[in-house]
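COMPLEX REQUEST
Ligand: farnesyl diphosphate
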Amino acid sequence: MSSEPATAASPRIPRHLAVIMDGNGRWAQRRRRPRVIGHRAGARAVNVCIDFCLERGIEALTLFAFSSENWGRPEDEVGALMKLFLNALEREVDELDRRGVRVRFIGERERFGEAIRLQMTHAESRTQANTRLHLTIAASYGGRWDIAQAARSLAVDVAAGRLSPDAIDEAAIAQRVCLADLPAPDLFIRTGGDTRISNFLLWQLAYTELWFTDLLWPELDAATLQRALDDYAGRERRFGLTGAQIAAPTTNETPE
Ligand code: FPP
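STATUS: Structure written out below.
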């Protein structure tokens, strides 16, 4: 456990937090309520998470709100989630802007209806100058889709003669996957008890520290997030190097 004060300058505080918000449906079912009630409660927990990041000076928060695969859920649940996203966007954007949060979306935006797409664009342009917290909502997002769209964009440049195939290396792919302008997530949190990544940020999570809790997403509170941060603070991140190399970084630099 870290005894250092919680400041963004401390390496013990993650710069970028990535979260799978799981367990809304079970939270509602345990109360004998429809699943959509769980998603509504989940939207409130999103605010808990944003507040926590702002208080701790975490620079970037990426939330998995809707996966490429979630389109396959029952039609009424997808419809209810769309309404919820639209309402949340309409309701929250002014407050997020006031608090210095920059909002962006990653994923296949064209799969959403026009009203949601317009709200997404509005939220992004309204908050684009903010720098206190970079909030990214992954919606209709899949890690495999992300890598495929990066590969396609490289292929387009090769076909047009702007890029040599020899120039395609890890750095070239890293520049074209989503979140390329942010540091890679330092800490990944998943609620809901499952210990998997579920097609979230497959490229970006290569060296991210993973933390799982059985708590359901609507139950999220600051104490739980603090437990995750305390656990993170006690870990040694070696990035494929040895512990000795990490302890003496003058002899070998730690890769980004
Ligand atoms: C996973 O729980 C959650 C989702 C598929 C939707 C996430 C949506 C929210 C948290 C609400 C609003 C978000 C924003 C950004 C405004 P699940 O339904 O898979 O739960 P289960 O595993 O218990 O069935």
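REMARKS: Residues 207 and 240 are 9 Å apart (CA to CA). Confidence is low (pLDDT under 50) at residues 1-9.
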